[in-house]
C-alpha cells in the first residue's frame, strides 16, 4: 500500500537544471575552459561541492580548498539570482496535478532534494503548501546515492520505507531510493533510469491510480 510519495526537486517538479547549467558554464569560462550541456548531465542530483569537483576535473584543474569554497560561492550567487525570478510557470507539466491528487487520496508528501536552495524554489513557485515534510541539502550529511535524504523524509512523515514511493530524475537518486527500501519512479528516459521500478517521461503521464497498480504488481 502506498502511504507516502517523496519527490526530488530539480528535474522532477521544476527544471532548475538550466539555471545550474548557466551558472556553472559562466564559472568554467571564467576559469578558461568550455562547459557543455553534456558535461552538465553529470552534475544532476549531485551536491554543490561534488559538482565543482567534477567541473574542475573536466577543466583539468587542481585547486586548494579555500579557493574551491570561493568558486562554489560564486556559482551559487549567480544561481540564486536566477531562481529569485522563478514563478509557478516553471513547475514541470503534470507535477502540480500529481501533488494535488496525492493530497486528495490521503497520501503524504515529502521533498527529498540535495539542494540547499530548495526553500527559495518551493516558495517562489508556490509549491510549499503541498508538502507535509521538506528534507533538503540543509538537513542531510550524506549525498545521494546514500539513502539518508529519503529515510529522513519517511521518518518525518512517520511512514515505513516499504509504503513509500520516490520520484527521481537522476541515477544516483534511484539508487538512493532502492537502498532506502522504497519503490522508485524514474522521471526521464528508460536508458539512464533502468534501475527504477517504473519510468515515465514526466509526471503528466502518471496518475495515482496507475501508480497504485504498478506498485501492487
Ligand atoms: P544547490 P535535486 C540538486 O537538486 C541538483 O540536481 C544538482 O544539480 C545540484 O548541484 C544540487 O541539487 C545542489 O544544489 O547548489 O542549490 O545546493 O535534483 O536533488 O533536487
Ligand atoms: Mg533531480
TrEMBL record:
Origin species, per record, is: Paenibacillus monticola
Quote the cofactor binding remark: Binds 2 magnesium ions per subunit.
Q: So which cofactors does this thing need?
A: Mg(2+)
InterPro entries (UniProt xref)? B-phosphoglucomutase_hydrolase, Beta-PGM, Beta-PGM-like, HAD-like_sf, HAD-SF_hydro_IA, HAD_sf, PGP-like_dom2
What terms describe the molecular function in GO for this protein?
beta-phosphoglucomutase activity; magnesium ion binding
Alphabetically list the UniProt keywords: Carbohydrate metabolism, Isomerase, Magnesium, Metal-binding, Phosphoprotein
Question: So which domain of life are we looking at?
Answer: Bacteria
Residue positions binding Mg(2+): 8, 10, 168-169
EC code(s) of this entry: 5.4.2.6
Protein encoded by which gene: pgmB
**According to its UniProt record, which residues of this chain constitute the active site?**
8 (proton donor/acceptor), 10 (proton donor/acceptor)
Biological process terms from the Gene Ontology for this record are:
carbohydrate metabolic process
Family classification: Belongs to the HAD-like hydrolase superfamily. CbbY/CbbZ/Gph/YieH family.
Catalyzed reaction equations: beta-D-glucose 1-phosphate = beta-D-glucose 6-phosphate
Q: Where does substrate bind?
A: 8-10, 24, 43-48, 51, 75, 113-117, 144
Its name, as the record gives it, is Beta-phosphoglucomutase
Q: What class of enzyme is it?
A: isomerase
